[in-house]
Amino acid sequence: MSPENTGSTAGFGIRIEGLRKRYGAGDAAVDALKDVNMIVAPGEVVGLVGPSGSGKSTLLKCLGAVIEPTAGRMTLGEEIIYDDGWRIPDLRALRRDRIGFVFQAPYLIPFLDVIDNVALLPMLAGRPNHLARTRALELLAALEVTHRAKASPSQLSGGEQQRVAIARALANQPPVILADEPTAPLDSERALGVMRILNRMAQQYRTAVIVVTHDEKIMPTFRRIYHIRDGKTYEEAGEGRDIS
Amino acid sequence: MISLAGRDLLHSWPRFVLTGFGLGLLIGVTLSMAGIYRGMVDDAQALLVNSGADLWVVQKDTLGPYAEASSLHDDIYRSLLSLPGVAKAANVTYLTMQVRHDKGDVRAMVVGFEAGQPGEPPFLIAGRYLTRGHYEALADAKTGFRLGERIQIRRHEYTVVGLTQRMVSSGGDPMVFIPMKDAQEAQFLKDNEAIRNDRARTAANPALNRPGIPGLLEAVQASQSSNHNVNAVLVQVSAGMTAEEVAAPIRRWRHLQAYTQDEMKEILVAKLIATSAKQIAMFLVILAIVSAAIVAFIIYTMTLGKLREIAVLKLIGTRNRTIAGMILQQALGLGLIGFIVGKTVATLWAPIFPKYVLLEPGDAVRGFVIVMVICALASTLAIRAALRVDPATAIGG
Question: How many angstroms separate the Cα of B28 from the Cα of each of B77, B370, B371, B374?
């Protein structure tokens, strides 16, 4: 990673060193991740690419503190969160406050309107409702969906839903966002639109973004791509096409 | 923090309202069943209170006159009047039968009583009390009879001259009050053919039809077709004496059974309506189980329909207790809707029931608590399913 590529100033968004994950034990043991190393700076968007079964989802679950790695180290911002064992006692709070998630489908909560879908995370973190909603409106404005703030998710287009999902991921200002195939269901124009937003938000909020993808349409937008094969990561320079 | 349960409820309110309405009908039936039981107890209570008696003197070794048949000679009341502590004593007869009028039959308890004595209805809502010795009747308003209407009891017609209210038997049948002599006749009157056969049989008996004793045959025949029995004697106790003090010598020396109000209530509630009460209790238990099963099923299926959202909520850091609280609140919300609907429909349809349905506020409060407890218990299955959702399922792969 080169800071000049990302505009990063100092520190890491997320840093992963020698991460391993083994399922099962003995003869039945399977090493899903053998040696994963990644560094993503604040404000940077990197791609994570690999064939099915290569360990992408396992890596995403480890990074998302949903499953526990077997060994290695993960640093979030300045803090080591995993070093051959979790260093953070409350993983739920870690996911809530310091990791943003964007999924292939937006998975907005259908019974909450747009503003409360975004405000929910700050509310869960204990922020007063009015401050949480102010924060949500600010993000919706940045993502140009303020006019849909009171709408139900079912009333939004696919692109609008994905933008709201990105706003939700940013709601607690996490140092890292994990995006799992966020452009898969979208056509080229909308897919590039989502990448444009992710890049802009990453820059604006100094967030490191890891995009797991198979989508050839968006590959040229990455400056750096991590390939994962047989549980190991290999870094590669991307085209870094300007889509602003 | 916003109410996730409330938002979900508002989002899918038609489903909630319809389910709550269905549940409410079930709760309405449950409340009505409880009301029917209360009505039966209240009917029994009204029967005792309205009779104006402190003691019921009945045939020895019986639980009469309501729970068992009881037969006493109609002159026993005189000897009872001579006992210390007895202010009033009067004969009564009770006979449940079909009373005919121009619109058909009405099942009623025909009560024979003596005017101005215990057993007479304590109040009228229309008309007047009996002034003639025969063929006048007082009727409970529930019979549907009108003032001046002619009704038929056995072979005789009676004119309804007064209407009473809440004068019903322990079985809920409305009462019709007629003079004692008419009631005795009605209770034991045979049909004409039977009387003719009895007279012929007596006349053919040389022991009862002796040529040398004029009037013997007529006297025997008259005794065969008349009745001097009553079902009970109602006693009012003088001031300064307790019913138990008066009852003791009646039991000891008169070879009769005497029941106080409390004992009679015990007989009516514990013996006469005990089987019905058990039947109703069984229904209440079954309805409670069915309600619980319905709430559990609805909440469980609603939760299964939200597993993806629950996984996302868990992934983004929602606490288990927030998710459990959401499901619990929805179950309680469903119970609340159901209870409101149930209480409303039970109140609306109570007057339509043929028997008295008494919806007591205490039962409503108890019912509400039970519904909430059932809903809370029923939600545990769904909460368990929700808490078992792996947040990793929100992430593909």
Answer: 48, 13, 12, 15
Q: Is A67 touching B (CB cutoff 8 A)?
A: yes
Q: How far apart are CA B230 and CA A131, in angstroms?
A: 85
* A173 part of contact set with chain B, CB < 8 Å: no
Residue A116 lies in a domain: no
* Candidates B318, B327, B395, partner chain A, best to mutate (most A CBs within 10 A): B395
User: Cα–Cα distances in Å, from B96 out to B63, B222, B268?
Assistant: 17, 26, 16
Copy the structure tokens of residue A210: 């890891």
Best of A54, A59, A109 to mutate (most B CBs within 10 Å, chain B): A109
- Examine residue A139 and state whether it is found in any structural domain, yes or no: no
- Could you report the per-residue pLDDT of B8-60, keeping only the tens digit for each? 888 888 988 898 899 899 999 989 999 998 888 888 888 888 888 999 999 99
Q: Do A66 and B315 touch (CB under 8 A)?
A: yes
Chain B residues whose C-beta is within 8 A of a chain A C-beta are 1-2, 4, 7-8, 10-12, 308-309, 312-319, 322, 390-392, 394-397
B39-42, long-range: CB < 8 A, 24+ apart: B39/B172, B39/B355, B39/B356, B39/B357, B39/B358, B40/B170, B40/B172, B40/B273, B40/B276, B40/B277, B40/B355, B40/B356, B41/B269, B41/B273, B41/B358, B42/B356, B42/B358
Per residue of chain A (244 residues), give pLDDT as tens.
333 333 333 467 899 999 999 998 888 899 999 999 999 999 999 999 988 888 888 999 999 998 999 999 999 988 899 999 999 999 999 999 999 999 888 889 999 999 999 999 999 999 999 999 999 999 999 888 999 999 999 999 888 898 899 999 999 989 999 998 888 877 888 888 889 889 988 998 899 999 999 888 899 999 999 999 888 999 988 887 777 7
- The nearest alpha carbon in chain A to B308 belongs to A107
B323 close to B310: Cβ distance less than 8 angstroms: yes
Is there a contact between A101 and B316 if contact means CB atoms under 8 Å apart? yes
Structure token digits, residue B108: 């009623």
Contact with chain B for residue A181, Cβ under 8 A: yes
Phi, psi of B167 (to 5 degrees): -105, 95
pTM over 0.80: no
CB nearest to A109's CB, from B309, B395, B397 = B309
- Name chain B contacts of A121, Cβ cutoff 8 Å: 316-317
Q: Is A168 on the interface with B (CB under 8 A)?
A: yes
| Residue A8 within any structural domain of the chain | yes
CATH of the domain at A23: 3.40.50.300
Residue A180: give the domain boundaries: 3-107+170-237
Torsion angle in degrees (nearest 10) through CA of B84, B88, B91, B97: -130
As for how many domains chain A has, the answer is 1
Q: B-chain residues within 8 Å CB-CB of A214?
A: none
| A151 domain-assigned | no
On whether ipTM exceeds 0.90, the answer is no
Q: What gap in Å lies between CA B168 and CA B176, rounded to an integer?
A: 9
For A95, the closest of B317, B322, B390 (CB atoms) is B317
**Boundaries of every domain in chain B:** 4-43+275-394, 60-189+227-255
Q: Which of A238, A243, A233 is nearest to A63 (CA)?
A: A233
Tokens describing residue B376: 């809370």
3-state DSSP helix/strand/coil % of chain B, to nearest 5: 55, 20, 30
